[in-house]
Amino acid sequence: MSEKPVVEAFTDGACSGNPGPGGWGVLLRMGRHEKELYGGEAHTTNQQMELQAAVEALKALTKPCKVTIISDSKYVVQGMSEWIHNWKKKGWKTAGKKPVSNLERWQELDKLAAVHDVTWKWVKGHAGHAENERADELARQGIPAG
C-alpha cells in the first residue's frame, strides 16, 4: 500500500463588512506543485468564509491525503482540533447548550476531514507568512463586487 500524499493547505477568509460580501482563498501545495483556489458569497461573515476556505481545500483533494491546514483563524483551528469533539457528543450543542453557529459548514468540514489525516495549525495573520498572505490575497479576490 502506498503512502498518502502529503499536502499543505494555506487557507483564509475575508469579508467586506461583517456580515457582507465575503471571499475565501486557498493555496494548496504538494511537493513542488501548487494550486490556488478562491471564491465568495454575496452575504456572509468572516467566520463562514474561514470555514469555507478549509472546506474548499479538502474538497479539492481527489484522494485521501495527509493534510496540514494552516489558517490564521483560531475559530477554525480550535473548532476542528478541540471543540468539535464535545459538540458532536452533545448533539452539536456548545458548552452553553446553544446550537453551534455555522452548523452546516462545520458538519461539511468534519465529513471532509474524516477522509484525510488532517493536522490543524494556527499562524498569526498578517505577520509575514508568505503563503498565508497569498491565501489572504486570494480570499480578497473572491469577494464579489457589489
Give the SSE map.
Elements: E1 6-15, E2 20-30, E3 33-44, H1 46-59, E4 66-71, H2 74-89, H3 103-113, E5 117-122, H4 130-142
Parallel strand pairs: 1-4, 4-5
Antiparallel strand pairs: 1-2, 2-3
What do these coordinates show?
Helices cover 37% and strands 31% of the residues. The protein is built from four helices and five strands. Helix 1 runs parallel beside helix 3 (103-113). It is globular and about 45 Å long.
When the domains are counted, the total is 1
Q: Determine the strand fraction and express it as a percent band.
A: 25-35%
Q: Uncertain regions: pLDDT < 50 for 5+ in a row?
A: none
What is the radius of gyration computed over CA atoms, rounded to a whole number of angstroms? 15 Å
Shape: globular
Count of distinct strands: 5
Outline of this structure?
The protein is α/β, with parallel strands linked by helices and 146 residues long. 37% of the residues lie in helices and 31% in strands.
What tags apply to this protein structure?
146 residues, alpha/beta, Nucleotidyltransferase, domain 5, 5-stranded mixed beta sheet, 4 helices, 5 strands
